[in-house]
Amino acid sequence: MMLRSLRSVRSFARRVSTLAMIALVSACGGPAPTDADPNVPAQTATSYWVGIEQTGAVHLHITLVQTGTSLSLLPNCDPERCGLFPFSPTGVAFVGSDLPVTVRSVTGSFNNPNITFTFTLSNNRTYTFTGRMAEDRLMTGKISGPTLPETTITFEKSITT
């Protein structure tokens, strides 16, 4: 009789323990969410960027405007700040000119940290950049177009915008 009573107490204790665990897990919503650090600004693509292609053949100067996640070109952008610049004979072949060619339009998106945009030059050549913003001041990725085989490019955001 005592053995049966001991089994019954153990069985009851297991049920209570199980119910207590279920109640605890149900009540706990997991770790509390942490607020973003107010001292660290959110990343934004809006700025004047200078990108150097890995071989140094071309430099892209571009002034992006971010609205939500959409990217566009700064209206009436100064050609010095919105152009593809050749820096070698290879760069001249990529750009289609021995002088800088103005960026005419940009479309793209920035979904932190991923960024992609397509830009068209005034000579109707179109290129695409796909990459990541590593910090608020740097982005790196791949650029390509019909005259530019896919290559790595690194951009730095101007701090004198």
Keywords:
alpha+beta; Lipocalin; nine-stranded antiparallel beta sheet; 9 strands
Q: Quote the CATH topology of the domain at 47-157.
A: Lipocalin
CATH class of the domain at 47-157: Mainly Beta
What share of residues are in beta strands?
35-45%
How much is the average pLDDT?
Answer: 82
Give the SSE order as H and E letters. HEEEEHEEEEE
Find the count of extended strands (DSSP E, 2+ residues). Answer: 9
Low-confidence stretches: 16-37
Radius of gyration: 28 Å
Distance between the termini: 87 Å
User: Rough shape?
Assistant: globular
Share in helix: 10-25%
Main β-sheet description = 9 strands, antiparallel
Query: Which CATH architecture of the domain at 47-157 would you pick?
Result: Beta Barrel
Q: So how many helices?
A: 2
Secondary-structure-based class equals alpha+beta
